Amino acid sequence: xxxxxxxxxxxxxxxxxxxxxxxxxxxxxxxxxxxxxxxxxxxxxxxxxxxxxxxxxxxxxxxxxxxxxxxxxxxxxxxxxxxxxxxxxxxxxxxxxxxxxxxxxxxxxxxxxxxxxxxxxxxxxxxxxxxxxxxxxxxxxxxxxxxxxxxxxxxxxxxxxxxxxxxxxxxxxxxxxxxxxxxxxxxxxxxxxxxxxxxxxxxxxxxxx
Length: 209
Fold this sequence. Notes:
Elements: E1 4-5, E2 8-9, E3 13-17, H1 23-33, E4 37-41, H2 52-57, E5 65-68, E6 71-74, H3 76-86, H4 102-125, H5 139-150, H6 164-178, H7 186-196, H8 199-205
Parallel strand pairs: 3-4
Antiparallel strand pairs: 1-2, 3-5, 5-6
């Protein structure tokens, strides 16, 4: 189904993607939204991320990135907020600005890059960081906070309202557990079963596990 914005059909956006990266979460989100998009493959091994053409899209030479008309958005969290606010699927993927759930929604959208990502990095590298120097906390604290919140998911963060926050939290947590960086907990298991059962997730991640 083609998504609509203010009643008008949306032109296909360009999505710079490598499936072996966090861009897979953006891919999942695009499938949840149902908008038209064109995948622009970006490989790690051939220098695609350092070409002048791609650096004009993202000077950091990183993916994901999207180009939506004249608008370029980079960084996973920023892309998720942009897409969920602008593109409306049959089931919106973000609480509106005046929705009382908006604040908590933004908290969990930001929690992926602000807490889960650095915890995954520490867990994978085994580097000890002085407690006072780690502004994001530590691996155990991140898992505890997630466990407490996800134990209340029914089945998603906002009950039956699936949002972009579920894409980011579900995607990052799934990887952290799959690659042994986080331990599985009861609250994680039930939540991941729910988000990974979604057709959009199955379409994007089929054969990748």
